[in-house]
Design a protein that fits this description.
The structure is a single chain. By secondary structure, the protein is α+β, with helices and mostly antiparallel strands. It has one domain. It is built from 2 helices and 10 strands; from the N terminus they run H-E-E-E-E-H-E-E-E-E-E-E. A 4-stranded mixed β-sheet has the order 1-7-8-10, with no helix packed on it. A 4-stranded antiparallel β-sheet has the order 2-9-6-4. Strand 7 and strand 8 form a beta hairpin.
Length: 148
């Protein structure tokens, strides 16, 4: 009986410690020169792990500046975490602050800096490329808002 109680206590301790582990910081690369396709009304998906889904949602922007680097994505080695905000007339700059993984969940914390209204609208988006070793089932995004 004592062995059973000790085994039960040890199991409870292991489960408690496992649930208290700190999230791991996940390295990422900001993915540039893509835009949300005009054919897309809303985006619920936050993780893109294949080229087909990604290219149905995002287009490659033409870049006028010479030598501007475009981010190529090798979906065999990487996946994309996306934050897409609703259309707005306020220029919005999205800056990733941290990406963490705990269990099977990624949490992206980013800053949104909104400026004065302009005469046209745009759809702010932030795309991060991440190595597949950090793949998760769920992605949560947390915004820290700043006004100009």
């Amino acid at each position: 009986m004592k062995k059973i109680l000790n085994a039960f206590a040890a199991s409870a301790l292991i489960l408690t410690l496992a649930s208290c582990t700190s999230p791991e910081e996940v390295p990422f690369e900001v993915t540039n020169h893509y835009y949300v396709s005009n054919a897309i009304d809303s985006i619920e998906q936050k993780l893109f792990d294949n080229e087909k889904d990604f290219t149905e949602t995002f287009g490659l922007a033409a870049v006028m500046e010479e030598g501007a680097p475009k981010t190529d994505i090798d979906f065999k080695k990487k996946f994309v975490v996306a934050v897409v905000l609703p259309e707005t007339d306020k220029p919005t700059e999205l800056t990733p602050l941290k990406l963490e993984k705990k269990g099977d969940k990624l949490t992206l914390t980013y800053e949104a800096l909104r400026r004065e209204s302009q005469s046209y609208t745009s759809r702010p988006c932030l795309l991060l490329t991440v190595d597949r070793q950090w793949m998760a089932k769920d992605v949560e995004v947390k915004e820290i808002s700043k006004g100009s």
